Amino acid sequence: MRERFGKDPDMNAMLFIIGIRELGAIKQMFTKEEKVKLMHIAVCRLFSTSGYYELEGVDSKGWPRWKRLKDLPYVDIFEQESLMRQHIIDYFEEEEIL
Q1: Helices (H) and strands (E) in the chain, counts
Q2: CA 1 to each of CA 5, 7, 14, 53: distance values in angstroms, whole numbers, following the listed order
Q3: Cα end-to-end distance, the chain, whole Å
Q4: For 9-68, what is each residue's pLDDT tens digit?
Q5: How far apart are CA 4 and CA 15, in angstroms?
Q6: Distance CA 62, CA 86 (A)
Q7: Domain ranges for the chain
Q8: Which pTM does this prediction carry?
Q9: How would you label 84-93 residue by residue, b for 16+ Cβ within 10 Å and e otherwise?
Q10: Using an 8 Å Cβ cutoff, are 64 and 23 in contact?
Q11: What is the model's pLDDT at position 6?
């Protein structure tokens, strides 16, 4: 990401980018609520590959709706970040972005 965009994106930025990709729509400005939803979409998409979420469909506004299949494991903050980073890397490789 540093090579492609010239800076190190933080975790929130990565989730935001993934959320926008999964929504499939870009607009000038997202509201704070929409940004939170985009990040939630990203988390659901990332953890769907591990069987924690399943895409149910889209709502009337075209936003993806996810169903939680099982609870995420309880891990400390460092393990949580490591787990999230690995899922992000897997996502970018799967989508052939990296």
Answers
A1: 4, 2
A2: 6, 7, 9, 26
A3: 8
A4: 788 888 998 999 999 887 778 999 999 999 999 999 999 999 999 999 999 999 999 999
A5: 17
A6: 28
A7: 2-94
A8: 0.85
A9: beebbeebbe
A10: yes
A11: 63
